[in-house]
Prior knowledge:
By secondary structure, the protein is of the alpha/beta class. It contains seven helices and seven strands.
Amino acid sequence: xxxxxxxxxxxxxxxxxxxxxxxxxxxxxxxxxxxxxxxxxxxxxxxxxxxxxxxxxxxxxxxxxxxxxxxxxxxxxxxxxxxxxxxxxxxxxxxxxxxxxxxxxxxxxxxxxxxxxxxxxxxxxxxxxxxxxxxxxxxxxxxxxxxxxxxxxxxxxxxxxxxxxxxxxxxxxxxxxxxxxxxxxxxxxxxxxxxxxxxxxxxxxxxxxxxxxxxxxxxxxxxxxxxxxxxxxxxxxxxxxx
Length: 242
C-alpha cells in the first residue's frame, strides 16, 4: 500500500520541521524501496543521523508494522549511525515496542515534532530562527527596535471604543467593529517580530508549552519564505522522479 501524496508531503514537512528545529545539517536524501532516507549531522560533528520517512507501509491499514522496523534494524547494523529516527503515519504496538528496545526514535504524522526538542534548547533555537528569518526577509538583523522595518513608532488608537476594544450595546459588551477588539494598532506589523516578542514574554513567565508553539510557528514561517531548497520539496521531487 502507498500513502497518498498529501500524506507523504505531510510526513516530509514533519521531517523538515524536525531538521530545522534541532539544527541538523543535511548530507544526503535518498529514495529506497519503501522509504526516503535523510542522512544528516549536527553542526561541527561528523556523527551521522538517519531519518527514515516511510512512504509505503507494510500493512493494508496504512500502519507501520514490525517488518519495516526489523528492516531498519538490519540497516543500522550495517551502518554506523549516532542516532536513528523513523517517521510514519502510525505504528503498531509491536513496532513501537521494538523501536523503544532498539533506541529508535519514532514520530507519527500527528506527533508534535517540537516536543522532541530539549526545553533548555528552545529559546536559543527561537533566537536562531528569528535571526535567519530577519536576514531572509530584510537582509539583516536589526540591532534596535527602531531598525526593524516592521516597527510602527506611532500606533493609532481606536477613537470608536476609547482604546478599550469593546463597546456597549443594549447593556452588553461587544467587540468594537472598528478595531475588531484590538483597541490600538500593534507596535509591529512584522509577524517575525511579534512572534519574537511573544517568545520573550513566554520565557520570562516560564511557559514552556507556549515557547514550543512559538518555535513551531517560526519554523513554519521559515519554511514558507526561505530561499534555500526545502527538504520537503527535495523529498517530493525524488519520489516523483522514481
